Input
Amino acid sequence: MEPPLLPLFALSILFLSSAASHSLSLKEDSNSSPFPPNFLFGTASSSYQIEGAYLADGKGLNNWDVFTHKPGTVTDGSNGDVADDHYHRYKEDVDLMEDIGVNSYRMSLSWTRILPKGRFGKVNQAGIDYYNRLINLLLSRGIEPFVTISHYDIPQEAVDRYDGWLSPEIAKDFTYYADVCFKNFGDRVKYWITFNEPNVAFIRGYRIGIWPPGRCSGSFGNCSVGGNSEKEPFIVGHNFLLAHGSIVELYRTKYRKIQGGKIGLASHTMWFEPISNSTEDKMALERAQAFYMNWFLDPAIRGDYPIEMREILGDDLPPVPEVLKRIKPSIDFIGVNHYTSYFVKDCLYSVCEPGLGSTRTEGSALTWAHVNGRTIGKPTSLDWLFIYPEGMEKIVTYIWERFKIPIFVTENGVGWKEEPNLTIEEMINDEDRIDYVRAYLDALVTAIRKGVDVRGYFLWSLLDNFEWTDGSQIRFGLHRVDYDTLERTPRMSASWYKTFIALHGFGPGAKPLHTQE
Ligand code: BGC
Output
């Protein structure tokens, strides 16, 4: 029987207070590490959420710059103009990573820092220089850059000229941009992600309309700019798949041989627990996965949409771009962003109250954390995030069994709203976060021990950051950021993660994964 992980986790907590003052050999137990050799342990972030400097050094406007400046779009009225000012403070932030002892960092590039007007203008050398400085610094500290080409941001120029994702033109812009990235950074960046969470970006932007460009119709939301919630998500999804395929094809033909990197796609993932043992509710689980995650993973890997989508949507589903059939599987790894799980209930054969997932174009599978008076897990101050660690084990197992492609957990973490009038000691006491991360890592290890090929884990996030339409009030950081002074203060979770990595992380002589087969 495998040794249980929990005592070691508990041990790492015990070490917390003494680790700083005593020279304990925390690696003593590393022989029993449940993680494969060369496992990547990192933190994750995205450019808009941390960089700030929104008009500095020639950067152009992106869709989020423009959206957050519209009154009423962000709950607390904040925006990413300054955020954590990571653009100017990246050295300090890399020091924080080095102190934790991570061997990798998931970051994203700001498209308009590099191409202020997409392909309709010049390359901004200041943007290239900035990312070169950051990448070089990371590598000099032994931290592998894991780079997302776009984490939701697209140039406003693309929106103004041709409605952004609604036009297949976006594929040309994205490929042009990716070419600039591969050319300038690909000698050092060996892990690329084309786009972060197309499912979230398109559901929120084009079905319920709460994210840019704020489009929706009918009962899905109240959108002044128009939209078609039943059709547009699939049109933009198609254009995204075109862009993704074309970027990967470009990398494979022009760069892969010389640069030797790998490309993946990061999906937001949910585990869904059927509300009953009925066949209908179990089928609803498959439909929920099809319409949420496999909508993109299936075409990207298998070259076709999931059968559940085909059956329900028929001709309403745009064709899979030819490029994805040519290059399948188009990804070398799957980026799994996982935070929470919901119940799922069938709405094809039984009547459902209206709610997330219940309509035909969402797959007729109602999903939410509360059903029939039951809650799936412990609530947090985020209305969408419930603590259900089993979901981590189940989702990576499901993905591995379906696709047999290596997995990196590219995001996992928990955020809280800070109560007013706390002392600094109280602000940095985040035992709840430690409990969450410990439990989710434990569940991940259970999957790894069963043979699921997981190669890395990126904790969201190094710093508190701009949490999209929830603004700056929601804090996901291992470090607290004082938004008046921009001072970073490590929370208890930062020392916990440091101790955890020292105990269980990559052992001596570990090499970056891209050097292995
Ligand atoms: C997104 C992040 C976001 C995090 C927490 C993820 O789905 O990729 O940008 O901050 O969730 O909400």
Observations:
- Residues 46, 49, 196-197, 200, 268, 337, 411, 460, 467, 476 surround beta-D-glucopyranose (CB under 6 Å).
- Residues 1-30, 508-517 have pLDDT under 50 and may be disordered.
